[in-house]
Structures are given as structure tokens and as C-alpha cells.
Amino acid sequence: MIAAEKANHDITRMVELLGVSRAGYYKWVHRQGAPAGPRAVRAADLAVKIKVAHDASDGVNGAPRITADLREAGEVVSVKTVAKLMRENNIRGISPRPWTPVTTLPDASTHCIPDLVERRFDRGVLNAVWTSDITYLATDQGWLYLCAVRDGCSRRVIGYAFADSLHTDVVETALRRAVTFRQGDTAGTIFHADRGCQYTSAQLADVAEDLDVRLSVGRTGVCWDNAQIESFWSTLKTEFYDRHHFTTHAAAITAVSTWIETVYNRRRRHSALGQINPVAFEHRLTTAAEKAA
Predict the structure, then answer these.
(1) Which of 63-67, 120-124, 270-274 has the lowest mean pLDDT?
(2) Nearest to 60 by CA among 251, 267, 231, 280
(3) Element housing 159 (H / E)
């Protein structure tokens, strides 16, 4: 204001009326014409790199994962600094929406299956616990159902299948694909899910016996007993599916399969894995085991 009115009014009188010092005003004038200091240059450089990393994540990642990206590229920077620069430059990650499962249809006439997991999904080794569930995907052709199988240790999706109905076949297909992917080395693996009729059916019991995996289910209506796979659904819907529109089942299947394989398993960082992706984590785990053998 002082700079804008200095041609019409005395500077001394204006600084008195505004309650600022004359020396302070002239310091401000000097700073306007001075080159940016090292801190400002550093902040501007980081802001550009943050924007690049954010765009590379399809606009999904927040400060923790972007910080991991920057550190991997050689930058020495804190999460707090990244978060501050993101706020100042209006760069935002995506936060999950509240999610309520609707695909669990209990079957009161089934055999008894225990809870072998008790929320201990990660046992520190691969193939100890697999979690599974079914979610729905909306398309212009109607509902599409997706069953996924996820390793509790690496968080990697190791088997999945799509169907246009909630039949046990979709679970069987996803489970058999997971066993095939792990090359059949799954004797004693716990296959954990909720008490939906697909998971407590006689058909799946026969499949589990054939594959030598142990069935496990959580309590009815307690989502935390299968929280790890439900966390995956939240990520899928929030970071990918809800941001797109699919006209056909085929288009949705292609897009979701690509996202699982290329983004979730191989690119997306997980805080529980030390901010690396599931494939990299599995590689690190198997390499360490081979060296120790």
C-alpha cells in the first residue's frame, strides 16, 4: 500500500499511520529487488520435484510416499518439509472414504471353521497367511465382482478373479491362481476370509483339502478380523476405481488387472513395508533368506 501511494502521500506519515517503522519499510523495498536466497531457491526446486512425484503417482500419494520417492532419488528432506510445501502449492494426496462391505452373505448351515489368524496377518514369512475377500465394481453393464488373495506378509496380491455373480467359483479360481503363482509350495498356508457363504461352502472346503491349505474365518460382522484385505479394497476404490468410469465388464477387468499388477504390486509404496512396494519387499525377503541359508 505504501509503495502504491508514495507518489500521493508522504512516506513518513504513512508508516506512522500504519504502525510500521520507516527502516522496516525500506528493508522490505530492498528485499523486493534482491535475488532469492538459498532457502527460497531450495524450496522452489523441491516444489517442482514434489509436483513431478505427485503426478507420477496419478495424483494419489501424500507427503510420506512422496518423501520416500525424493529420498530414493537422492534428496535429503523431511516429511514435514514436504507436507509444508505441498500445502503451500495446493498439492494433495487422496484420503480414503468410509467403506462398508456388502458382499458378506453368511451361510448358517455350513461346517465350523475356526479363526486361525486372530488378526495376526503378518507372520514375518511369505505364504504363512493369505487373506481374501470379494468386492463389487460398478459398470454400465451391471455389477462385476472381484475376489482377491493377498499375502499377509508382503501385502502382494497373488491371485484374483472376476465374475458377474457371487458364486464360490470366483473364490476357487482366485485361490487356485494364487497357489499356481506360488508354484504350489503352499502346504499349511492359512487362507483367511470373512464368514461369507462362498468361503464357508462345502465346495471351498474340498478345494482347500485338494490344495493343502487351511481355511480360517473371522467373526460375523467384525470387519477388523479381515482388516488387511479390506484395506486393499479401500486403496483400490479410492486411488483408482472411483476416479474412472467403465462402460463394460471387459474394460473394468482390463483396467483393474493392469492397476493391480503394475501399480499396486510393483509401484505403490507401503508404510508397513518400509515405504517400498510388495514385489521389491518379496525380493528383499527371499534374497536375505538365500544368503542366510
Answers:
(1) 63-67
(2) 267
(3) strand 157-163
What are 239-271's pLDDT values in tens digits?
Answer: 999 999 999 999 999 999 999 999 999 999 998
pTM value? 0.70
* Residues present in the chain in total: 293
- Which set of grid coordinates corresponds to residue 263? 501399480
DSSP string for residues in 102-147: ----B-TTSPP---SSTT----SSTTSEEEEEEEEEEETTEEEEEE
C-alpha 133/C-alpha 117 separation (Å) is: 15
Question: 3-state class of 192 per DSSP?
Answer: strand
CA 230 to chain centre: 11
Number of helical (H) and strand (E) elements in the chain, helices listed first: 11, 5
Helix (H, G, I), strand (E, B) or coil at 63: helix
Residue 17 has pLDDT above 70, yes or no: no
Write down the pLDDT at residue 131: 96
Instruction: Determine the distance from the C-alpha atom of residue 121 to the mean position of all C-alpha atoms in its chain, rounded to a whole number.
Output: 17
Helix or strand holding residue 193 (H, E): strand 190-193
Q: Average pLDDT, stretch 9-20?
A: 61
Cβ–Cβ < 8 Å for 213, 190: yes
Angle between helices 63-72 and 38-56 (to 10 degrees): 110
Q: Which residues of 7-45 are buried (b: 16+ CB within 10 A; e: fewer)?
A: eeeeeeebbeeeeeeeeebeeeeeeeeeeeeeeeeebee
Between CA 278 and CA 274 the distance in angstroms is: 10
The rounded mean pLDDT for the chain is 84
